[in-house]
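Item description
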Amino acid sequence: MPIIMVTTEGGKAEVITALKAGVNNYIVKPFTPQVLKEKLEDVLG
């Protein structure tokens, strides 16, 4: 199951930790609807 993490933490260390934990993509708040659409398309193909 694809996982997209949404958070307020956008530091490089946090992103790396999330990716190592199995997150497929990462969105930092605040984000636009376009960013969400792009991330969903990336994960779902």
